[in-house]
Amino acid sequence: MKRFKGMAMTVVMGGVIAVAAGCGSDDTKTSSSEGKGSGQLQGEVITDGSSTVFPIMEAVAEEYMGAQPDVKVSVGSSGTGGGFKKFIAGDTDLANASRPVKEEESALLDEKGVKYTELKLAFDGISIVANKDNEFIDSLTVEELQKLWIDNGKVKKWSDIRPEWPKEEIKFYSPGTDSGTYDYFNEVILEEKPMVENATLSEDDNVLVQGVEGDKNAIGFFGYAYYAENKDKLKIISIDNGKGAVEPTHETIKSGEYAPLSRPLYTYVANKSVAEKEQVADYTQFVIENAGELAEEVGYVSLPEEEYQKDLDKLKELEK
């Protein structure tokens, strides 16, 4: 983490969080409204959703409010599922997500007459971590991940995974069921089978970091930025998907080599908000123009430039 180290991860998660305005950096693009010559804007922009996406959107909101101090941008972190619930209810302008919108969520949005546009923000690599003092585990195969995390009705010990490992009970830490990270892990690793019953679940990734840090027999997972912020406190585990063990890094996440746990991060904007609220249209453009740089600053991986241009083109269509 660079400029936002020690700040982005320490804000209390849950509910709607109003981000304090900060000064825009010289490296960050100015608010798009200034480029249009429309002067200062007023009003509110309300966002909620993924705790994984939260550090990016918190950083964007801080920069934006430095350029547009009369616009209040609130950033919530109720989880991807929680964010979509608020988006469906019409309570937010943008829904931040660490997975694509589900069919049932899309159907509810249609039912409520909420038209929306999907925008990609960055790449993430779900990071599997152990306690820093764990000396026996360096890598896991996907099959071993499944053996660890899929419930079998029994208390699991490390020796159940590999006989040479300690005969000590494993403590599990997972994002909560409203989390897009949980959904992605459930689909890709658990293959929709039930997770171990004794896992500690939380929508707040900082709680998971603290849990793994505090128990020598702990294992957990969350977005890469939370590992990057706490790498001095945690041990990263490389994942072998059949082509050798791969550690999540900027390079392996961007290339897709860190499979199957690399994934894109999203925000969804309400078309009506863009059409009717100038500050939302301006903020959304600012998000797209700055997501790559600020994602890198908080520990994620930027998309190719052409992907951001595609999103800008989508936004221009909404503003016509």
List keywords for this structure.
D-Maltodextrin-Binding Protein, domain 2, 14 strands, five-stranded mixed sheet, 2 domains, 320 residues, disordered N terminus, alpha/beta
Describe this structure in words.
This protein is an alpha/beta fold and 320 residues long. The protein folds into 2 domains: 163 residues, Periplasmic binding protein-like II (D-Maltodextrin-Binding Protein, domain 2, 3-Layer(aba) Sandwich); 138 residues, Periplasmic binding protein-like II (D-Maltodextrin-Binding Protein, domain 2), CATH 3.40.190. Helix content is 38%, strand content 21%. It contains 13 helices and 14 strands. The strands form 3 sheets. Strands 1-3-2-4-14-5 form a 6-stranded mixed β-sheet. A 5-stranded mixed β-sheet has the order 9-8-10-6-11. Strand 2, helix 2 and strand 3 form a beta-alpha-beta unit. Helix 2 packs across helix 12 and helix 12 runs antiparallel to helix 13. The radius of gyration is 20 Å and the shape is elongated. 47% of the residues are buried. The N terminus is likely disordered.
